[in-house]
Write a structure and sequence with these properties.
membrane; STAS domain-containing protein; four-stranded mixed β-sheet; SLC26A/SulP_fam; Transcription Regulator spoIIAA; transmembrane helix; 26 helices; two-stranded antiparallel ribbon; alpha/beta; SLC26A/SulP_dom; 612 residues
Length: 612
């Protein structure tokens, strides 16, 4: 995280009064693990609770306690956040291959909508490097309408995940896969920005290695002005990042605080200084009556916020009309992966900054979905929470989500007044801002930690596969491959099953039984392992009764239930007596047709036919 040092230095400061946001009464919390016993009236009550305006619009709860001190704190945090957000949003739009204004549209609408629907005061919704790269993966070479449709569809998927409480799906993305995914994303972005940093014309994207090779093969064509400006901006950004260390907080807190605010605004300062330099050079240098600059500029940016436009419409591409459903088909897996990554990032950030560690994940899904759906109506690119900006907001003393309103107003001011001057922002400067921002996402040190216990071998394998495939085949394929590998270990336990054996004495019995205990679940794929273990014990000590302890079983399918009855018959043929089941769930007793005895449960046997 870029602001880690500043946060550590300032967290000792009193943060003032904090307003509780979006917290439900602990006595009213529902336990989703008991939905099988929920009555019809309770289901209706839960549905009505989910439609409660105070639940879906948390601003209605905390705005009543809002006062002048909160407004001042949020104003400072919002302006500070805006100075970070504006240059980042312009730069992130370039990653997605879009004109700079689309990043500002997303920053404005994301900040504004989250004010009303957000539950974590620190979270900043807007364009991010992850969303920009995924947007480029699925919309490169296509009209801008595809980007808008992707944002709209992603928002609908996020709303559906919130409605059906599917936020748990992000748990299938393990920490090693997340690390590999973000590290590979950072490398891809750095590789893609090397061309802009050196003033080289952009080539067709052919993946990370193709892009780096293209840059290396054209080093002789690098533009001196762009190269010097880009490297100088990176050096200046790094110097400003460590500026607060010159005067520690223990020596002079006011001076340290002032230097810290300058450090937080480093992106805006570097962009502003570069734009002023470019403007001066353009207006003072002419070539045959035409103003020129020694480096490539961003170009014209469309001012203002676009009018409301419903995203569900057709688009014309090269004289051919492409319908909305056809665009959805062409976006393919992006309709799932983009919202999934967005939810993963947003929920992780919300959990990191929530004051008590409790996050209303369902409401966060609704908030993120609305940010994307409403944003797409104003031509915004896909958005999610940004960790760096959220850290800036936290360290600036934010008290409520209303700080996002001031950030949104600052972005609106930039769109309405400053867009003529955005023309002079050098592309090398934006490349430097992006490289400095995503460099902190690289987490290659995790490889050493994954190679040591308690990490599993599959953790290191998942990281390696995800990282390598992301660089070679693209981030969407790499993420799926990493998830698949990381699921091998839990699937090995669930699908294959594990069995332990021990001796035990049942209640009301002095006889020692051989106890066989299946772990976790018994599915059809694990039946053979259990059968082998049980029959091995029956052959080894046929004189001792066999007990199957079902205490740790949490799931049982039809195939396994049928195999248990057949296994009991085989045990009886070995002369080991009936197979006794203990600690069986009541529902399973009926399904398995078990008969209770003094020692436990046994399978019912058909009555022998009478001979008349």
């Amino acid at each position: 995280m870029e602001e880690a040092e500043e946060l550590r230095a300032l967290r000792q400061e009193p943060s003032g009064r904090r307003i509780t946001i979006g917290r439900e009464d602990p006595n009213d919390r529902k336990d989703d693990s008991h939905t099988t016993t929920t009555t019809t009236s309770t289901r209706w009550g839960t549905l009505l609770e989910g439609l409660d305006p105070k639940r879906r619009l948390p601003i209605l709860t905390w705005i009543r306690k809002y006062d002048g001190a909160d407004a001042l704190s949020d104003l400072i945090a919002g302006v500070t956040l805006g100075l970070t957000m504006i240059p980042q949003s312009i730069a992130y739009a370039t990653i997605a291959g879009l004109p700079s204004q689309y990043g500002l549209y997303a920053a404005f609408m994301g900040s504004l909508v989250y004010v009303f629907c957000g539950t974590v005061r620190e979270v900043s919704i807007g364009p991010t490097s992850l969303m920009s790269l995924l947007t480029l993966e699925y919309t490169a070479g296509r009209p801008v309408q595809y980007v808008i449709v992707l944002a709209f569809a992603a928002g609908l998927v996020e709303l559906a995940m919130g409605a059906f409480r599917l936020g748990f799906l992000v748990c299938f993305i393990s920490a090693p896969v997340t690390s590999a995914f973000t590290s590979a994303t950072a490398l891809i972005i750095i590789g893609a920005q090397l061309g802009n940093l050196l003033g080289l014309p952009r080539t067709v994207d052919g993946g990370f290695f193709a892009t780096v090779w293209s840059v290396l093969s054209r080093l002789a064509d690098s533009a001196t002005g762009d190269t010097l400006l880009g490297i100088g901006c990176i050096v200046l950004l790094l110097a400003l990042q460590y500026l607060p260390r010159l005067v520690p907080a223990t020596r002079s807190r006011p001076v340290h605080r002032a230097l810290w605010y300058v450090s937080l605004s480093r992106n805006a300062l570097v962009v502003l200084l570069s734009a002023l330099l470019a403007h001066h050079l353009v207006t003072s240098n002419t070539d045959g009556g035409k103003a020129t600059a020694p480096f490539r500029l961003s170009g014209r940016i469309e001012p203002g916020i676009p009018a409301f436009e419903w995203p569900v419409r057709d688009v014309t591409v090269n004289g051919t009309t492409v319908t909305f459903p056809q665009m959805l088909v062409e976006l393919g897996s992006g309709l799932v992966l983009v919202p999934l990554v967005a939810v993963l990032a947003n929920v992780a950030i919300a959990k990191a900054f929530a004051s008590d560690g409790v996050v209303d994940a369902t409401q966060e899904l609704f908030a993120l979905g609305l940010c994307n759906v409403i944003g797409s109506c104003f031509r915004a690119m896909p958005t999610t929470g940004a960790f760096t900006r959220s850290a800036v907001s936290h360290a600036s003393g934010v008290r409520t989500p209303l700080a996002g309103l001031y950030s949104a107003l600052l972005t609106l001011l930039a769109l309405g007044v400053l867009t003529p001057y955005f023309y002079y922002i050098p592309r090398a400067t934006l490349a430097a801002v992006l490289i400095a921002a995503v460099a902190s996402m690289l987490d290659l040190g995790i490889v050493r930690r994954l190679a040591r216990p308690p990490a599993l071998r599959t953790d290191l394998l998942a990281w390696t596969v995800c990282f390598a495939v992301c660089l070679v085949q693209g981030v969407e394929v790499g993420l799926l491959c990493g998830m698949a590998v990381s699921l091998l270990e839990p699937l090995r336990h669930w699908v294959g099953g594990s069995v332990s054996t021990s001796g035990m004495t049942l209640a009301d019995s002095a006889t020692v039984h051989r106890c066989i205990r299946p772990e976790v679940g018994l599915l059809y794929t694990g039946v053979d392992r259990l059968r082998t273990a049980v029959l091995a014990e029956a052959r080894r000590q046929p004189a001792l009764p066999l007990v199957l302890d079902c205490e740790r079983l949490v799931v049982l399918d039809y195939s396994a239930a049928r195999a248990l009855r057949e296994l009991a018959d085989e045990v009886a043929r070995y002369g080991a007596g009936p197979l006794v089941l203990v600690n069986v769930r009541p529902g399973w007793c009926r399904a398995l047709e078990l008969h209770q005895t003094d020692e436990g449960y046994v399978f019912k046997r058909p009555e022998p036919a009478s001979n008349g």
